[in-house]
Amino acid sequence: MTNVSISFTEYLQTKAGITDEQLLQLNDAIQSKTIEKGSVLLRQGEICSHSFFLEKGLLRSYTIDAAGKEHIIQFASESWIISDRSSIFFNEPSDFYIDAVEDSTLILIDQNFINLACEISVSFRLFNDRALQNHIRHLQKRINLLLGASAEERYLDFIKLYPDMLLRAPQWMIASYLGITPESLSRVRKELAKRNFKPY
């Protein structure tokens, strides 16, 4: 299973209730960008000035600890939005990196766009509020899983959330997201295979 690629304008109309007339008002505020695999959109210590909507490709956000080890916080594929909301809202240096796992086409969403969309569309304002609450819900669930769930439970939740990621991200990245070693991930997958579990 892979995600279906849709344009940002389609997303605004189908998900956020933006009309054709409102889309014309927003058109000048929509910035598109194509980047290559490995390109860095945000570095630790920088102020995050945009959220990124994925029309095509794959991004990840992560931290690097004092020992140089990466800890992946989030993946974002088609129709996902990724950013450091805290850095944007509080205008503070980010703790995260965001880079491209695949060649990607994305939309840069800044605060001016959000303000204008909220001003002209009640539907978008409600959608944006719900999206923020949904983001918080996912973060709370992720913290709970990292603190109390087994490696197998984390893995099963991961493939529900990212059904095509096993085909797109290297195993070491998936292990990093799960907070386990690649060796532990291999053991989990072998154990599930013994029980005839099919992840996709």
From TrEMBL:
What is this protein's name?
Crp/Fnr family transcriptional regulator
Question: Which PROSITE patterns does the annotation name?
Answer: CNMP_BINDING_3
Recorded hits in SMART domains, A to Z, give:
cNMP
* InterPro entries reported in the protein's UniProt record: cNMP-bd_dom, cNMP-bd_dom_sf, RmlC-like_jellyroll
Cyclic nucleotide-binding domain residues are 14-111
What organism is listed for this UniProt entry? Flavobacterium amnicola
